[in-house]
Design brief:
By secondary structure, this protein is an alpha/beta fold. It is 37% helix and 21% strand.
Length: 257
Amino acid sequence: MIWIVGGTKDSRDILQKLVEDKNENNIIVSTATAYGGELLKKYTSDETKNIQAISEKLNEEQMKELIKDKNISLIIDASHPYAINVSNSVIKVTEEMGVKYVRFERKMLDYGTENVVKFDTLEEINDYVRQFEGKNILSTMGSNNLGEIKEMSEKNNLYVRILPTTASIQKAEELGYLPSKIIAIQGPVDKIMNVATLKSYKIDYLITKESGATGGEAEKVEACKECGVTVLVLKRPFVPYKNIFNNVDELVENYNK
């Protein structure tokens, strides 16, 4: 059985190609949230196929139990580029148990140098923003980092773009974000919508992660360039991956070789 470590659009693309192009029917896809599991119902509800979804965070012991119980022979790590704890745990477990591991890693996006500033940590971005007052800042990093960037709202107008789920919105409200500062929308967001958002909220700075060329990141950066908005980029963390593929089609053609 194949285990796809998912939670991204990439993982769903890989699942679709494995099912449709390779006729793979014995697949487990894990996501950290119930919302991620909901996006897989198209496949898990098909009774002719043995495609299962696990919608919870797994620790290393649970990963080992899953591999044993489901007789996993291949793990495809298509987790988010910033979910480094997940990838590190999966790599460790596969090495201990002798299970084949392949990684799908999104291609890096060329941000250029005009109106782009890159940072190694979120604390560095906080330090950078402390010099400003009265600026309109839009975070597109989702709900996971809401607490870490909250201090930006002390002297500036901080808007956060997050998923329109109860959990995400509730987290934002509990941290003190006002409804007027919450933009709840399902991505990926196209360039037209990004431009409209930037203009409507008169955004000066947009915060994003170096997530890669897919998932709407390119459209986001193009919109910023058109609107003269400075992009503050949190650099992608380094993980010593092995058996890396940057293209879904190539992965599906070679995953079992």
